[in-house]
Amino acid sequence: MNNKKLFASALVLSMFFGLTACSSEKPEDTKVVEKKEEKKEEKKEEKKEEKKEESTDAVLVREISSKTYTVTIPQLTSFYTPSRDGLEVKTEVNEQQITYTLEDEFGDFKMAIYVKPIGADSAEAYANRINEGFKDDESEQYKPSTVGDFNGFRQVTTSENPSFKCKDNLLLDFENVVMSVTVEQFNDSDTSDMEVAMNAILGNMKVEVK
After folding, report:
1. How high is the pLDDT of residue 5?
2. What is the 3-state secondary structure (H, E, C) of the chain?
3. Most-buried pick from 60, 63, 70, 185 (CB within 10 A)?
4. Which residue pairs from 9-17 have beta carbons closer than 8 angstroms and sit at least 24 positions apart in sequence?
């Protein structure tokens, strides 16, 4: 009889301590949970910002006369700031060239920049070949010219057409390859940004030949 009473008492005590232990395990404070969720959201936002800030190089790989030319230019806005505000900058790389377009949302201003290697022995040889077709029109000929620290042969043409204003093309011998850098500007008579953009491209362009 005594054994039964002892067993019953032990059972009651074990149930009591079990309930006490369960009641001591309080659920996590809702404020703590909210803070954890906020931190997760902050980390997600930080990752998004990091992706936006990542700069993407423009890389053109082109084969000319059994040689492979790799032209690399950093993100344009990382080294060139247009004097005009609010321009949308786009970069395109195809099989022939790297193209940049800078345009405002209303279409009142547009600048286009084209960069490509050329299959020629030298910039002078290529310029002379083009000039042969313009013997009677000196205004269309390439002439020796300097842009910043770079020497080459340059052709500048303008048009009275209101939708097209100016085209500036420079041919130069650049790291064992002839490069062509062309800047076109539309819908604006102020062409002061054109040479600045060209010089910025030349100063940040790298070319590898294999």
Report:
1. 53
2. CHHHHHHHHHHHHHHHHHHHHHHHCCCCCHHHHHHHHHHHHHHHHHHHHHHHHCCCCEEEEEEECCEEEEEEECCHHHCCCCCCCCEEEEEEECCCCEEEEEEECCCCCEEEEEEEEECCCCHHHHHHHHHHHHCCCHHHCCEEEEECCEEEEEEEEECCCCCCCEEEEEEEEECCEEEEEEEEEECCCCCHHHHHHHHHHHHHCEEEEC
3. 185
4. none
Question: Band of the pLDDT at 189, cuts 50, 70, 90?
Answer: confident
pLDDT at 53: 46
For residue 51, is pLDDT > 50?
no
Q: What is the pLDDT of residues 104-128, one digit of tens each?
A: 998 889 999 999 999 999 999 999 9
Contact partners, residue 35, CB within 8 Å, separation at least 6: none
